[in-house]
Automatic annotation (TrEMBL):
Pfam families: Peripla_BP_4. Keywords: Membrane, Signal, Transmembrane, Transmembrane helix. SUPFAM superfamilies: Periplasmic binding protein-like I. One of its GO terms (molecular function) is carbohydrate binding. Residues 76-342 form the Periplasmic binding protein domain. It comes from the Bacteria. Its main location: other. This is Ribose transport system substrate-binding protein.
Amino acid sequence: MNKQDNNKSTIDMEKHNEKHKRVLRDKLFVWMTVVFGVALGLIIISSIVFFKQRIRKTEEFLSKDKINTYDKYYVMIANNMEEDIRNSIYESALKTAKENDAYVDLLGSNLDEEYRVEDLLKMAINMGVDGIILEGDNTEEVNELAKEANERNIPIVTICEDIADEENRKSYIGINKYELGREYGKQLCEYVAENKLNNCDVRVIFNETQMNSQDAIISGINSRIKDDQKDSIIKIESKIIENIVEYLAEEQINDMFIPHVENGKDGSGFKLPDVVVCLTEKNTICAYQAVVNSTNTDKVKVLGYYITPEIKEAISYNNIMSTVLIDTEEVGYDAVEALTELYLAGNVSDIYSVGTKTVTRENLATFDMEGVVVEEESK
C-alpha cells in the first residue's frame, strides 16, 4: 500500500512539474510575442517619422528662395519619362516660366534618393505650389492626389500622358493619340505598298503606363489602313510590357524574336512580326538591338519614337524604318502657357494638341539630335 502511495505521489509530482513547465513555456511565448510586436511597432513608427522628416526637409530645400523670388512657383513631375525628352520639355518650360515671372522646378531631380510619382505629388501639394506639370499616370493613388490638389486650388496640367479622371486636371498637353496612330498607319501602308506585300503582321508595343492611350492609338492605326484599303493585308496586335524595372522590358522585347518551347520543339510554331511599332525611345532602341542580335534585320522593320544618335544611325542603315518625334519645346511652352492663362483669365483650353514630325532615311540629314529641323534653324 505504501508502495502504491509512493508511485501515485511520484506521478502527481511529474504531472505538476509538466504543468508548471507548460505554463512557463506559454508565458515565455506570450512575452516573446509582446516584445516582437512592440519592436515591430517601433520600427514602423520610426520609418514613418523618418520618411516624414525626409519629405519635410526636401520640401524646405526645394522651396527655399524660389517662391519668394518669382511671382509663381510651379513644379514638374515626370518620373516615367525618358531623360532626353523630360529634360527638353523642362528646359522649354523653365524658359517660358521665367518670361512670365515664374519658376519651374523639376521635382525629384536633385534629391539624394528616388521618390515615387505619388510621393512627389504629396510633396508638391504640401508645399502649396502654384501649379503642377505632371506626366499622367493611370494609377488610382495618382488620381486621388490630383483630386486633392484640385480641391486645394492647385492646378494640374498633364503632359504626354493623361490621368484617368480628366476632371482632376485643368488641361492636357501632348500628342493627339488617335492622330499619332494614323501617322503610324500611314507609314505601315507606305511600307506595304513599296514592298508589294500580301501580308504584314504588326506588333505595337505599349508600356504599362501607356494603357490610357492604347485604344486611341490602335484605333488611329486601323482607321488609316482601312482608308488605304490595306486592312486585309495589315494585321495589328498589341503587346503590353512591364516597364517598372528596365531589364524586364528588355527581356520581354527580346523574347519576341526568340523561338520558345511552346512554339513547337523545332520552333515551327514561332512567327516573327514583319513590323514592330514602338512608342517610347527606350523600346525603340531595345527592339532595334533585339532585331540585330537575332540576325533578323532583313525580316523585321522597326517604327520608332523620338531620336537619339543610335536611332539616327539605325535609320541611316534602314534598320529602323522611321521614327516619330514629339515637339518637346512646344510641350514645355504650352504647359506653362496653360498655367499662366489659367491665372490671368480664370479658364484654359482642355487640350493643347502638340505637333509631330516623322523622320525617315530621306529627310534624316535635316534633323539634329533633339529633333529640331536644321534647315529651319539656319533661316
